[in-house]
Design goal:
alpha+beta, elongated, 2 domains, 7 helices, Beta-Lactamase, single chain
Amino acid sequence: MHNEIQAQITRVFSILSSLGIAMYNAELLEEAKTFMFHMLTKVVEYGGSDLFITADFPPSIKLQGLMRPLGQQALTAEKTKLFAYSLMNEKQRQEFENEWECNFAINVSNVSRFRVNVFKQQLQTGMVIRTITSEIPTFQKLKLPDSLKNVMLEKRGLVLVVGSTGSGKSTSLAAMIDHRNENSAGHIITVEDPVEYVHKHKKSMVTHREVGVDSILGTMP
């Protein structure tokens, strides 16, 4: 595993160096994006949950709860920023430069969806990319209490789902939304940052809106 990834990293680093790291031109960004998609494909193949990109450390994945560096070649601050920029559109890059953080989702065709968090640490760019399973979890699989099924069929009210990072907020909400989608005829609107689970139309019509990208006004929830 490591030898294959290390060879890919060495090849890409050689190409990026020859192109000139200072200029984020289209060719450079496309090469970096291709490399990132390759890395994310490997994360899924190996059964990893997260890919970590940070300066002064090799690209690493979380596998069975443990951090595993992919090779020995550490990333420079310039290459780390380039890899992050390659996954962002111009609006997201501007948000990152203004706020020093940006959250969004990407889709690697025939592989998976991923949630991306780009941030600044000690004035350098870092990035954590988490795999989003395409399968909507069920109440039974998550062992959620049946009382939540009735809550999700209420016509009005406010339900807060809170918890620490990795505690299952997103998966629980996905299961709850899917239950309403299967059992109530209506229009479901999700407002997310970023859109993670993509719900298909079932008994309800589902509209996904992304904070900072879409406007919810006029969609008639």
